[in-house]
Specification:
single chain; 218 residues; alpha+beta; OB fold (Dihydrolipoamide Acetyltransferase, E2P); Arc Repressor Mutant, subunit A; 3 domains; three-stranded antiparallel beta sheet; 52% helix
Length: 218
């Protein structure tokens, strides 16, 4: 495990510690409501805690694995454990529940999925062959980079829709995902999702190949 990967794993563990604390608050809220219900059901509906019942339940469901991941990340750090895999990069956006507003970027590769940080996602070409290093016990992503193996471009479909042609035009201008996102009033994660689908449809692994595949005659 490189120093940079160790730092990334330590940050992951810190985030899971924070999530575990939030989970504990949610559990204590539900326990307090259960105790009140045991004393008198009427007390539950009159209690200010009732306002937090549904949010606490959402937290309990969404963050239920955080303590286990926190402990596992500590073991990964102590054991200096790293696993690797290769596969084609697929990046998706996963929305969080309202209480945890926002979205996570999810990397799918080699039959596994990882929460991926934007600084890593920006360096990956959707659909390309990548090498992934991760902590085996916690499943934390440590690094992901092109493996140098790329499939051959396929014959492009002739019926690209308006959004796909618009995206290709902006890619041809040399704009980054963030610049395209601002131009189309989308999030960078959504642009990456569109890129992934477009590259897969064209059978390419780079921006240059995408432009060439879309403009060359069948």
């Amino acid at each position: 495990m490189t120093p940079q990967e160790r730092t990334r794993l330590a940050a992951y563990r810190k985030a899971k510690a924070g999530a575990s604390l939030v989970l504990l608050v949610g559990v204590l809220t539900l326990v307090a409501l259960a105790v009140l219900a045991g004393v008198s059901p009427d007390l539950v509906f009159r209690s200010p805690l009732m306002v937090f019942a549904i949010p606490a339940l959402v937290v309990l469901i969404w963050l239920r694995n955080a303590p286990r991941q926190w402990v596992a990340a500590g073991r990964d750090i102590r054991q200096n454990a790293v696993d690797t895999l290769t596969g084609h990069a697929i990046i998706r956006e996963r929305r969080r529940p309202g209480l945890l507003a926002g979205a996570d970027l999810i990397l799918l590769a080699g039959g596994r999925q990882f929460v991926i940080q934007p600084d890593i996602a920006d360096k990956l070409v959707p659909g390309s062959e990548i090498s992934v290093r991760f902590a085996p016990l916690s499943g934390a992503l440590l690094s992901a980079r092109p493996s140098g193996v790329s499939p051959a471009p396929a014959t492009p479909p002739a019926d690209l829709n308006r959004r796909e042609r618009e995206l290709l035009a902006l890619i041809a201008e040399g704009l980054t995902d963030k610049q395209i996102a601002r131009r189309l009033n989308l999030s960078p994660a959504t642009v990456r999702t569109y890129n992934s689908a477009l590259y897969a449809r064209l059978g390419v692994t780079s921006r240059t190949q995408a432009i060439r595949a879309a403009t060359e005659p069948d």
